[in-house]
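Suppose you are handed a protein chain with no further information: no name, no annotation, nothing but its sequence. What can you learn? This example shows the usual starting point.
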Amino acid sequence: MRTLRKRKNVLTTVWLKVNISLEIEELRKRIDQVDLELLKLLKERTKLVSEILEVKKKLGLPFKDVKREKEILERVKAKAVELSLDPALTEDIFKRIIGLSMSFYRDISIAYLGPKGSFTEIAAMKFLNGANVRYIPKPTIREVFRSVESGDVDMGVVPIENSIEGSVNITLDLLLDTPLKIYGEVELRVDHCLLVSPGSTMEDIRVIFSHPQAIAQCRAFLETVIPHAEIV
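A reasonable first move is to predict its three-dimensional structure. Written in structure tokens, the prediction is:
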């Protein structure tokens, strides 16, 4: 009798697992259907944006309407709260949808603090990525602001704060001195590497060359691990 009960329990467990698996598959099918509907709606939204931009082009109106975009974001955040969704995450999603809708219609140019391969370029790509997006490096933060203000580019990406070094003062100053406004925000993990010749030890390091920002962000490590090295 004990063996029979054990077999019955095993069979019952298997039956439950099979049914759980079937339930998951059904839910996944529904998710796939929702994803398909989202894509259809995204395509419809993109088409409507394209039609609006064509009208703006004929009337000579500005390509971007910051006020309108702000109204959209405020509305979706409020609706997200009603639907028990994360308003900040919802806002981020819609910022990307707005950007993608525009990039499908025409090329978008983004100036960023260079050179190419900088953390700011990575942040720009994280914020808006697509085949029609051009990333243009600028030598200074001031040049990024100038390019956006003059209309040479559609957007600009600049550093505004570092968790170790604090605020980037030149960015804050230019936000006060120019009519440009913050359109979006990207948080980016920053990792620095100490490069040495093969076979070198910490004791062998005598001089460290780097960008002032990188030096400042790594100062605690450098002063603790390589206090004898000259920093240039």
